[in-house]
Structures are given as structure tokens and as C-alpha cells.
Amino acid sequence: LRLGPFELLLLPGADDPAALQDALGPIPHSLVGVSDRNVTLTLQGPWAARILSGLCPLDFMENVFPVGMATRAPLEKADAVFWRTAPDCFHLEVWRSFGLYAEDAIREVARGVTFASLAI
């Protein structure tokens, strides 16, 4: 995922860092495993974009933040990666120490709104 002009987030399916290192070959890079650092939250449902808009200064409407787009931005006081995987589904990555904080913030904004799932 391209998060910015000089930042990529690789979410490989395989647990083989050597294969990824080989694939990058001579390309200048810094490959650091941070899989244990993050926790993943998935917010899905027709109100997902509006719920996130209550927590982050980004515009999550589909014409501005289309499917496939990803970026790093604050989710309240926590740094988060937002990735729209479907019209009504967002994949979020936050540091593990902010996982419950992020979940509680989402639930607070979503209070009274029915959404399909919030999974950690």
C-alpha cells in the first residue's frame, strides 16, 4: 500500500521475510518486520465512512477516498493506517497499545448506528 510519496506498507501473505528480501533485490529499501506491533480493525457497513469521519479529519466519501486508497492519519489521538477495501469496508492498522482505545473511540461515535462488524 502506498501511504505517501516515500512510504509503502507491505502486507505480505507469506511469513517468509527472506523471499520478500529477495524480491526487492537491488532496490534500495529498509525492510523491517512490524507485524507484532500492529492490531487490525475492520469497520464494515453503510455508515463506516461517516463513523470514521467523526474520528479523523479525512474525507472518507467514496468519490474522495475510493476503494484501494490507503493513507496514514490520526484516529483521534492514535496514529492509524486507513485502507478502503470495498465501498463499505475499511481496514485499519493501529499500534497494539492503541487497539482498545481505537475500538472504544469507534464504538462511541457509532453508538446508535448499526454496522455490520467491528473485528479485532
TrEMBL record:
SUPFAM superfamilies: Folate-binding domain. This is Sarcosine oxidase subunit gamma. InterPro entries: SoxG, TrmE/GcvT-like. Gene3D superfamilies: Heterotetrameric sarcosine oxidase, Probable tRNA modification gtpase trme, domain 1.
